[in-house]
Amino acid sequence: MWIAKTKAELRARLDAASRPIILVPTMGALHEGHASLISLAKEKAGTEGTVLVSIFVNPIQFDRAGDLAAYPRPLSADLGVCETHGADGVFIPDDGEMYFSDHSVTVKESSLSTHLCGAARPGHFDGVCTVVLKLFLLTGCNSAVFGEKDFQQLAAIRRMVRDLDLQTEIIPHPTIRESDGLAMSSRNIRLTTAQRADAPRIHQALLAAAGESDAESMLRVAGKIIGGSEFAKIDYLSLVDAETLAPTENLSKPAILACAVFYGEVRLFDYVSIGR
Ligand code: AMP
Asked: Quick check: helix, strand or coil at residue 193?
């Protein structure tokens, strides 16, 4: 498995690599969720193709400096996960390699991003789209794998691919969960033992709410279960249309019940699909 730290090294490696090139963009602190994405990329690449994992904690998608500074960066463990799951190469640029100090051009997604996490984190999805577009252009990848865990991110990236006529195929991967239902996240390790024990209530609340037959009851049931925690502070809890991500009460179309919850400084996110 090769490692490229600069764009020039990456280009040299990829010029010699066989296609298809399948990219798995990550911010590192890799867990089983990321590992499954790499395995899926390996399956899609077949024996001939090239699986490339990028590890880059993208500064322009963070709205809180503390969150960026606290983001875990266990590089050697990450490289082990990449190698074990069949990556052919890893791209680990630093901030200066990815962004000129006076960079001034970004991608702007102006519809899907106004809801849910985007409403609470202005500019976040523009930062995500910008780095993903740069990675697509730098790697010339044929396909890229993204987790459904971050469904708003996936929706914004699909919209970017559609609107900018990008040729990269987007491959979704279902959410991987801990055995108690908590969605795996690089942020989970920042929870205290008590917070970690409490956090599965997020998934439980969403599942319980999904059994209700109207929007108001869904929000009430989920809000009550999460609100019953001594640690959890709801950032938002919302039922949205699965296509536009705008708030809805209409359950005759596919919808998504989503929430973001703070445990101290750690913001956890989860959702459940309704009606599909
Ligand atoms: P991140 O490193 O958090 O930016 O995530 C990199 C990729 O892994 C994104 O496409 C995420 O959606 C995906 N991912 C993160 N956690 C999970 C999970 N628990 N299950 C599936 N995919 C995940």
From this structure: helix
Residue 117, CA distances (Å) to 153, 171, 197, 248, 271 in order: 9, 22, 24, 16, 12
Residue closest via CA to ligand 1's atom 14 equals 147
Tokens representing 37?
């994405």
Quick one: tokens of 260? Answer: 């973001």
Question: In the structure, how many helices (H) and strands (E) does the chain have?
Answer: 11, 9
User: Are residues 50 and 23 in contact, defined by beta-carbon separation less than 8 angstroms?
Assistant: no
Give the confidence band of 67 by pLDDT, cuts at 50, 70, 90: confident
**Consecutive H or E run containing 81:** helix 75-84
Q: Which residue, 259, 260, 251, is CA-closest to 216?
A: 251
Whether residue 158 contacts residue 242, with contact meaning beta carbons closer than 8 Å, is answered with: no
Condensed to tens digits (0 to 9), the pLDDT of residues 164-179 reads: 999 999 999 999 999 9
Q: Which two tokens stand for residue 41?
A: 């990329």
Residue of 37, 54, 148, 190 to mutate, ligand 1, most atoms within 8 A of C-beta:
37
259 pLDDT above the threshold of 80: yes
Pocket around ligand 1 at a 6 A CB cut-off: 26-27, 33-34, 37, 146-147, 149-150, 173, 175-176, 183-186
* Dihedral angle sign, alpha carbons of residues 205, 121, 188, 35: positive
Q: How confident is the model at residue 227 (pLDDT cuts 50, 70, 90)?
A: very high
Residue owning tokens 């459904």: 148
Domains of the chain: 2-173 (3.40.50.620), 186-267 (3.30.1300.10)
